[in-house]
Amino acid sequence: MLSVLLAVGAALAAAGISGIIFSRNFVAIMLAVELIIISGIVITVSFINASTAAGAMLLISLWAIAAAEAIATVTLYAFMKARGSNFRVDKLNLLKW
Length: 97
Description:
The protein has helices at residues 2-22, 26-46, 53-82. It is an all-alpha fold.
């Protein structure tokens, strides 16, 4: 079971890294970062027995952090969309308000 979870974590990390390398869209890059964070969570939790109280609390806290980052990404997207910003990363030259 451990090898399966490690393989899933490695696949998620590889998908996230390829998303960062090959994407030019801001939202796609942020989602790729989320994939990398989730892969770290899967790998971390795979080494801890989730049936114990400590493992369950670690799992819930790591998922809460990932959810907070996703909410921050959606909020930043909505703010940039309302201001008419360009979402192509290669077109960004200045980060100004």
